[in-house]
Amino acid sequence: MFFKQALDKQLDSWISDVREHANLPVRLRLWNGSEYQLGHFEKPDVTLTVREASALPLLLVPSLDNLGEAYVQEKIDLDGRLADIIQVGYGFSAAAARSAGGMLARVAERFTHTKEEDKASIQYHYDVSNAFYQLWLDPRMVYSCAYFEDGTEDLATAQLKKIDHILTKVRVQPGQTLLDIGCGWGALVIRAAQKFGARCVGITLSQNQFDMATERVKAAGLQDRIEIRLQDYRDMQGQFDRITSVGMFEHVGKENLPAYFGRIRDLLRDDGVALNHGITATDPDSGEVPMDGSGFMDRYVFPQGELPHIGMVLTTAQKGGLEAFDVELLRRHYAQTLRHWAENFESNAETIRAMVGEKKYRIWRIYLAGCGHAFTTGRMSIYQVVCQKADRAADTFPVSRRYIYDAPIGTNG
After folding, report:
1. 2: left (phi over 0), alpha (psi -120 to 50) or beta
2. Bridge-partner residues for 244, per DSSP?
3. Is residue 411 scored above 90 in pLDDT?
4. How far is CA 13 from the centre of its chain?
5. Which residues are catalytic?
6. From CA 322, how far away is CA 386, in angstroms rounded?
7. CA separation (Å) from 159 to 138, 180, 307, 410?
8. Could you tell me which residue ranges the DUF7884 domain spans (predicted)?
9. What share of the chain in percent tops pLDDT 90?
10. Beta strand 76-79 with 46-50: parallel, antiparallel or unpaired?
11. Per mean pLDDT, which range of 85-89, 194-198, 308-312, 395-399 is the poorest?
């Protein structure tokens, strides 16, 4: 009885504080039928249903990590437009951070990133099932930031434009060799062989991606020009004219970045060109941003994922023996990409639930929408960095960036 009274008092105090300082368009519904308004709104946008008393400790300190945990564990339900739900989540988290004096930033964990751990992390994320990804990605299954040249493209067109944008940036020529680190389901290497005439090797640690990419290469009749390998980049040998790494270096680990870029340098011919396309932190010190939901991400989505600031990317690339020749921010492009993914996901909600179960459905639903909000508001960012071996003449590149835009991109030619 004493515990219940204390909890009720704490809950009443929390509700009053949220109404006064956060003013959120939320109806709070408890397991016992009690309802409260958490803001001064006639019609709340979101209904938050607390399904059991054990959720209250998570709710009373509503960081994004705690809210995500409670939602995934089915201790709370959230009803309303997905965009409103995410906005409310950030509102809760901001209020909690203010109450705690801004001390809700998560203490960064140190990851070792052994080959075995990295393989397990990749397979955890990517080997849900190919059919699962096909429900919300584009037909080529490109799982990285698209390129909306006009801003009006559909997702499939924007993803094709992204691939061509990358291949044009690194100036792939017919007959050149290209290594794609983290090749996904094979879209980039297939395009590089078909349109640009390259001879390609694509590597992945995901068994599902390897199987489908291999099938797609065979279906395209490109076995003589493309090889797909289930292999760690650290085990690669040889040298290549061009190297691309798209949406992979987030798994490398910040402490390992100099070695990662150094390995790319070793695999690159002296006059070769490399491009790294990856998500970055917005904190200049490459730390975690308060209210960023990184604990939830590490636990449920990207085990051992680490994001460096673009400053660290350029510094560690130089330490690895690479000089950056072109840097492009694509944050707004990723926000638009994630909106497409989230909409596709919502459109196929019942099919996805039946396929992967309620828990994984909730994880991916909140992850896609939350990331879209993070890129929209600048909590996360993403850059493409074009590099060449350091201390060399820059003869590979024209003196201006016009070459990137003069060639038509995103066509089927």
Report:
1. alpha
2. 180, 275
3. no
4. 37
5. 371
6. 9
7. 8, 16, 23, 8
8. 19-91
9. 58
10. antiparallel
11. 395-399
Residues 6 or more apart from 94 whose CB is under 8 A from it? 22, 291
In one-letter notation, the amino acid at residue 354 is: A
Indicate where the chain has its CATH 3.40.50.150 domain(s): 115-406
* Residue found by looking up tokens 């019609």 in the block: 43
Instruction: Enumerate the β-bridge partners of residue 328.
Output: 384
In degrees, to the nearest 5, what angle opens at C-alpha 245 toward C-alphas 240 and 247?
A: 170
Specify the pLDDT at position 3. Answer: 46
Q: Check residues 85 and 142 and name the one with the higher pLDDT.
A: 142
The answer to whether the beta carbons of residues 79 and 102 sit under 8 Å apart is no
Q: Which CATH architecture has domain 2-99?
A: 2-Layer Sandwich (3.30)
DSSP letter assigned to residue 33: S
Cβ-proximal residues to 84 (8 Å cutoff; 6+ apart), any chain? 25, 45, 46
* CA distance linking residue 325 with residue 377, whole number of Å: 28
Q: What is the pLDDT of residue 51?
A: 92
Paired with 79 in beta bridges are 47
In the chain, CATH 3.30.1050 covers 2-99
Please state, in angstroms and as integers, the Cα–Cα distance from residue 96 to each residue in 85, 93, 277, following that order.
Answer: 17, 5, 34
Pairwise CA distance, residues 379 & 371, whole Å:
9
pLDDT digits (tens, 9 = 90+) for 45-82: 999 999 988 888 777 777 788 888 888 889 999 998 88
Convert the pLDDT of each residue in 110-153 to its tens digit: 555 566 655 555 555 555 789 999 999 999 999 999 999 999 99
CATH code: domain 115-406 is 3.40.50.150
Mean pLDDT for the stretch of residues 358-366:
91
pLDDT above 70 for 17: yes
Rg over alpha carbons for the chain, rounded to the nearest Å, is 23
Identify which of 349, 346, 368 has the alpha carbon closest to the alpha carbon of residue 357: 349
